[in-house]
Amino acid sequence: MSARVGSANVGVIVFPGTNSEEETVRACRAVGLEADAVHWNAPLDVVREYSAYILPGGFAYEDRVRAGAIAAHDRLMTAVREGAAAGKPVLGICNGAQVLLETGLVPGFAGASGPQAGFARNAPSGKFRSTHVYVKLTIPPERCTITAALKPNAVIPAWASHGEGRLAGGAATLARIAAGDHLAFVYSDARGNASEAVVPNGSALGAAGLVNAAGNVLALMPHPERDAWTFNHHDASREAARGDAAAMLKPSGGIALFESFAQAVRQWS
Amino acid sequence: MQTLGVLGVGEAALVSSLREHGLALKADEMQTIAARLGRDPTLVECHAFDAQWSEHCSYKSSRVHLGRVPTEGPDVILGPGQDAGIVRLGAWQGESYGIVVAHESHNHPSQVVPFEGAATGVGGIVRDVLCMGARVIGLADPLRFGPLDDSHSRYVAQGVVDGIAAYGNAIGVPTIAGDVFFGDGFRDNCLVNVVALGLVKEKDVIHSRAPAGSAGWDIVLVGKATDRSGFGGAAFSSLVLDDADAQANKSAVQVPDPFLKNVIMRASYRAFDVIRELGLTVGFKDLGAGGIMGCTAELVASGGFGARINLDLCPTTQPDLPAAVIAVGETQERLTWVVPPSFTSRLLQIYNEEFSLPEIAQGAQAAVIGRVTEETEYVLTRYGEEVMRVPIEFLTSGIKYDRPYAEPEPQIRTLTMLVPEDPGAAKVGAEWGAAELGHNSGRQAYHNFNTLVPFDDDLPYRILSHRDVCSRKIIYERYDSVVRGATSIPAGYADAGVLVPIPGSPLAMSLSLGGNPRYGAIDPALAAEHAVVEAVCNAAAVGARPLGLTDCLNFGNPENACDMGAFVASVNGLATAARELGLPFVSGNVSLYNQSANGNSIPPSAIVACVGGLGDVSRSVTPGFKGPAHQLYFIGEYTGALGGSVLADVAGLPPTNLPNIDYARLKKTLAALRNGIEAGLIYAIHDVSDGGIFTVIAEMAFATIDGARIGASVCLDARRDGIPLEIGEAGAYFGEHRGFIVEADRGFAELLAEDRLIGAVVGATHHRFDLRVGADVPVRTWKLDDLYESWSAPLRDFYEDVPA
Predict the structure, then answer these.
(1) Which of A61, B42, B205, B405 is the 20 to 30 Å CA partner of B433?
(2) ipTM of predicted assembly, 2 dp
């Protein structure tokens, strides 16, 4: 659990209740990053050494009060906030995205402190749902350091696996999110067509991911790390790899976001 | 110290004092205990024996029969006997890997408090896998509910799914398989079976027993602080469910804490790493039925030791909990270690400091509560006084009954016996009876059946919307089937779930289920064989080789000769199928007393899970059509029996015989599949089961990838294909023929040609999204969008309708 100063290394923050640290670390390593799962009682000065942070999926602090609410105030978040302020790349996935909205780091409107929007209970069912989705990049790639190496309008496969993923906010807030290029990803089909029919949770603006004003903190509800190897896929690429073990075990699909993240981490460190 | 008067007490007085103390033990069992101890037992001892000698813990009614099931084979690392079985998956980078599998029921609690009952069912089975030293990597849930027009069944069906989702999702273990059946027989007793899977290196297996030479070692209790929840759980599970009792027994149901479990799992993984580094041999066991007493007694007894436990050292949520509650209460999220004293402080440090259990949940921690002893007595102390001292072998070996049983009379009435000479005189449904039996064969039988059960345009919709056929998507989307990132085929995508559990290795494993309650009601023995065969065929359909089986045997009251007879017949059926297929059972569970107070027992329900292995995940197969102009084959065996089929239910046919199983032919069929996959000729496979060939082909069209809209034409010709005539046209398309529909290249026909018995082309895929049937022009056509809606709607509407 020791951070290596000066190298491109990522702290994958594990709160009590986090459950996706293993695959998140694996995805980082697949794109050449060094990554550690950093537990909630790690010394703060060790956590500060990392070049970048990922807040992975799970149910931090049992989603008490609401998803992300307690973890946003966890001791380790001090290091994450400081890092974000210094420009380190910070990626929150699913529960991690909920935490980032609870801290107010995302969307991070100028002058705002505390949460400005939230991921509310899915609509209409109000229930946890796990379903395969695609997300489309809707900002110019360079608007966010973490997406800078993606192609414009990139479409990434992922799994939406959450009970609280519906972007909710007042009309003024939603307008400000759209106007400020905070809406990084929307749900789409495999070809990049966005429509209400492909939004799994009733999210406002069809939002799947939001970025902060400075462009270094990204909150993404679906999990690209769960569809990041060919054997995870159910599309033509799986068929093309039939009978070819090496092709089946290759990183692909959702790994694209981690490749772009890796470039951001290397640039920062 | 309080004792229970047994010696010299009359039977009637004893029965009433047992009832007064909430003990389920029978008077004669209590007398046996007192006689062996040579004194009246203490109250703590009474509760200990009550748990340990319960049906749930002791398998007292079932044990004499279970030995008939084969448990050995070349792929077995660990057979039944410990908390879970282990099969060998294969070697990777010089290490042999095993798949740990455990299978249990949580039926009684789930009927009473569905959410907590189902959640703690998942929690318990996860601990069974964890304590083998394994990473927990997968879950599956076979469920049986009453009809959804019944209000309590609706409540149960909703709560159980919520409970499984809440627990499995939070601990971060993917649910990769499951099934659901509905029926009147499950109105008063739902079935919630749970299967958990783990991954472990063969050399790192930890056993649920005190290791050799462990006398004097520490016994360390880990987890949630003991509270009053789950007191009497084992005994409760071994009683007939009575409405009034059910309410009173709610306190016997445990309280789940998946949040704490998530942390305990991760801390235990850390402990495994340290134990491996230090080269220690230790014991580790889950606390289930019988609580601290049940766990520690079995842990040390299986190593040939005794134990001395100080109940004062067990962390509790409140002071002065009664000794019996601490001893046998089934507070959740607890495990017990047996470790050398030199390691104890390191182990405590991992749980209490590194993973800070006391900060995760009030009172949660790891604590030394006693030690392993050389003497073979099991001793509990409370406030310095011995509250229990019994010979440990007497406590843990339980009792055994060879209960009287009545051999079931399987339904042997065949369709030809049902269909009268003059079909015009026939009556459908209950009015069909022996008086109208006729004996027909050939074209006349075909014609007769077509008159009685016509393959009309509406029939496909009635089959696809049947409660046992329609889409389960609304349920499996409630479960996280992809957490851990190792899922290659999630729940609901194919006949089995598939994981790639070792990062970097092409080794994959499958998990599939079998067990059809419609079959169980007709012929328990043959239904049990079908359960094995179905689980095995489901594994084969994704390209896996079956490695091992588990079972959960859910039956009614063993004190009733008919229920006991159905149980015995089912065990025989499982044994027959396993022997024929050369497969071992490595783990299992028996759940009896699934009977309500008014005497209704569930249909005999032997539920089987199959763990399969794939040497190379790139050889895995999914059921969705992959392209147009591919040939469709049926390979397997057409049956002339419709007993237990969805078609029989939809048509209102009275019970008739089940399909027979021709094992020689089945083995050839499985070999043909393997060869086709190996040769790269196969695009898609779907096992034929509920709803028959038409249903399977429709489901393959629904499962196409990338939103492609590929349909199919299919033509079954009774004469050409050798389909028994007495099932008519509807029976050909909707009968539950044992076999597979395969989308393949033409080369597959050549491969099959060597053995024409096995199968032949029955259709082809095409570019229109419809399903075309028949050879005559014009063929009959169903739009797949319409069929999809019919298939999707029933459960979706139910689960979306119910308020959150």
Answers:
(1) B405
(2) 0.96
